[in-house]
Amino acid sequence: MSDAAARPHTDRIDAAARVVTDASRMHAVTPETTAVVDMVLDYARRRLLDTEVPLDKPMPPSELRRLAAGSISEDGVGGRRALALFENVLAPACLTIDHPGYLSFIPSAPTKAASAFDLIVSATAVYGGSWMEGSGAVFAENEVLAFLAREFGLPETAGGVVVQGGTIGNLSALVAARDHAARVRAERGQARPERCVVVASAEAHSSIASAARVMDVDVVKVAVGESGALTGAQVRTALDEHGDAVIAVVATGGSTNFGIVDDIASIAALKDEFDFWLHVDGAYGLAAALAPSARHRFAGLERADSLIVDPHKWLFTPFDACVLLYRDPAIARAAHTQHAEYLDTLTDRAEWNPSDYSIQLTRRPRGLPLWFSLATFGAGAYRAAIEDSLALAQRVADEIGTRPELRLVRDPQLSVVVFERVGWEAADYAAWSDRLLDEQRAFVVPSSHAGRPNTRFAIVSPRTSFELITGILDTMR
Ligand SMILES: Cc1ncc(COP(=O)(O)O)c(C=O)c1O
């Protein structure tokens, strides 16, 4: 019998003798809902404080259908059974992204404070789209944005919003850039170019091409040399060729594949000669600007018109969050504010409405977990944790250099180490990667560069140790 069947349909819940009906049952405070809240918080607490959570692995659809199908019914199965299904079947079928051995793609390693506070963001039902509805939350998020703007050398007037992820952040920034270019051109009495162009490195993240497709603009992918970094000289050629059609130049502040930072300073210097919007995609790597040892790699960043950095990558917050900052937020506001009769009461005010700065309206104040964690531990703890990943990546690269069966593809600049196992084909990497996961040792997927198979470690967790990584390297002998 389900919990639902055991529960009486009406129940007096307080001294005023309000009756819990079928309609109010899910929202009322009753023994049933109290038990659900307690169970969920207890599970969240256990998961957050458990240091032995296995990596886990994906399950085939047939297996999940066999074990977990049929949970949605007219009467419900009750909180206890639904949570047990999640804990025993669904959660183990999800990779543990914050496991120290999760080293693929770009991992995430939220702090305990940030993850715990994410529960509060849900529990308080705060709306983060407008000042009118969420001024306290918006204020705190803006504290984070102001802190990061200072770190990145942007003027005090810079501002923005925390959006869902780097893809939306890049798209929103490029839409603002195009809108700005169109306004400037209109003011000068110039016609719109037939096609608008975004200039980016051939190594830029796929979300730039995705944004261009959504916007129906072209991307000029500039080939980069051996260093992998886009330079001012290469951008100059593209600007000379495409002239007024260029609405933005994108510099990458830490490529996803290699962690390479484009030569932002030489690209930014072109602003003295050309009129273009400089966007820096630092979704993964820009966090490293907080680390004193890596700050120099981002010289020129202070001239960016917009930039992004994803806290869910290397600023230790749970999914999902992307900090989007504009040098001149008024430009973004003009591009993004949605107008409607029912919204006028919000938008006709001078107050800061986060929804005005990106492609979204309703928003969770997803910057709050970072605010809480930063306020709790201080920026110094962030700098130390990021430095730890940088130092570990360098140590791992040095170690790879001592092993004759391995070959480093490039010296790491940030915390991505790409290397080859001499003599291995793509199938060898795939079999090895599967074995690592089957043994629950690590999650390291095959990759490739210039047609040659390789693999890579992307390190963002301070819980990832040198010993764990040398243990993985030993399996490649
Ligand atoms: C450099 C870069 N830009 C953009 C993105 C896209 O970010 P998101 O996955 O949060 O949409 C990524 C993701 O890895 C990235 O590494």
Structural summary, described in words:
- It is a single chain.
- The protein has 477 residues and is α/β, with parallel strands linked by helices.
- The chain is built from 17 helices and eleven strands.
- It has three domains: 75 residues; 262 residues, Aspartate Aminotransferase, domain 2; 96 residues, Aspartate Aminotransferase, domain 1, CATH 3.90.1150.10.
- The strands form two sheets. A seven-stranded mixed beta sheet has the order 1-7-6-5-4-2-3, with helices on both faces.
- The site of pyridoxal-5'-phosphate (PLP) has 14 residues, from helix 7.
Structure at a glance:
By secondary structure, this protein is an alpha/beta fold.
Keywords:
477 residues; alpha/beta; Aspartate Aminotransferase, domain 2; Aspartate Aminotransferase, domain 1; four-stranded antiparallel beta sheet; 17 helices; 11 strands; binds pyridoxal-5'-phosphate
Helix content: 40-55%
Please tell me the total number of domains.
3
Largest β-sheet summary: 7 strands, mixed
What's the number of helices? 17
* Distance linking N and C termini: 55 Å
**Total E-strand runs:** 11
Beta-strand content estimate? 5-15%
- Give helix and strand order, one letter per element, not per position: HHHHHHEHEHEHEHEEHEHHHHEEHEEH
Helix vs. strand class: alpha/beta
Looking at this structure, what is the CATH superfamily of the largest domain?
A: Type I PLP-dependent aspartate aminotransferase-like (Major domain)
For this structure, the CATH topology of the largest domain is Aspartate Aminotransferase, domain 2
Q: Which CATH class of the largest domain?
A: Alpha Beta
Shape: globular
The assigned CATH architecture of the largest domain is 3-Layer(aba) Sandwich
The average pLDDT value, as a whole number, equals: 95
Rg, rounded, reads 25 Å
Q: Which consecutive residue ranges, at least 5 long each, have pLDDT under 50?
A: none
| Order of strands in the sheet with most strands | 1-7-6-5-4-2-3
Hetero ligands: pyridoxal-5'-phosphate
